[in-house]
Design brief:
- There is one protein chain.
- This protein is mainly α.
- Helix content is 29%, strand content 3%.
- The protein contains 6 helices and 2 strands, in the order H-H-H-H-H-E-E-H.
- It has a two-stranded parallel ribbon with strand order 1-2.
């Protein structure tokens, strides 16, 4: 269960499994026989930032109990956001695990069930990726990836409007964070 204050929309909770999303409520319909009262201001739209880290034990972070906290920024993100005490991966492979996270589907259903040659996933009727659902709610979506194996060919970035993945190999955390900050700065100026 989440250790945070956000409410979970059931459909998205099932789809994302580990990601909490706050959706804006639809405004109420005004009655036609009497003047409508002034509408309350719309709730603030929250940003959603999902950070996935392969093979990081939670007890090796300051928030998880490590006595020499090497992760002050990650700990701050955990304090201010939503964290989960226990999570399980459906398959010990990054592409398959991410596809399950973003689609709510088991690896056999999305096709990345073979470690030797995972197949890419594309959305289809009745199964949409989280980025597609968020885009339908007018969120700007981006996937800033550290490894080429999570790029477009894998299907992990399906539905994201912007994808930034290395063409070969992988990038270190500092390079990925710098690319993410750059995207946030550019899109913030554009709005």
């Amino acid at each position: 269960s989440p250790e945070g204050g956000l409410g979970l929309d059931l459909e998205l909770a099932m789809l994302l499994r580990f990601v909490a999303c706050l959706l804006l409520a639809a405004p109420s319909l005004a009655q036609t026989t009497a003047p409508a009262p002034a509408s309350p201001p719309a709730p603030e739209r929250r940003s959603i930032v999902l950070v996935t880290i392969e093979a990081l034990r939670p007890d090796w972070t300051g928030r998880g109990g490590w006595t020499r906290p090497p992760t002050p920024r990650l700990d701050a993100l955990g304090r201010e956001g939503v964290t989960f005490a226990r999570t399980v991966t459906p398959m010990p492979a990054a592409a398959a695990a991410h596809l399950s996270l973003f689609t709510g589907l088991d690896p056999r259903a999305h096709g990345a069930d073979d470690l030797a040659s995972p197949k890419g996933w594309t959305s289809r009727e009745g199964a949409r990726a989280a980025a597609e659902l968020l885009a339908a709610e007018l969120y700007r979506t981006a996937a800033i990836l550290s490894h080429k194996g999570l790029g477009r060919a894998s299907g992990v970035s399906s539905g994201f409007a912007y994808v930034d993945a290395p063409e070969s190999g992988s990038s270190d955390a500092a390079a990925v964070a710098a690319r993410a900050v750059k995207w946030i700065e550019v899109t913030s100026r554009a709005s």
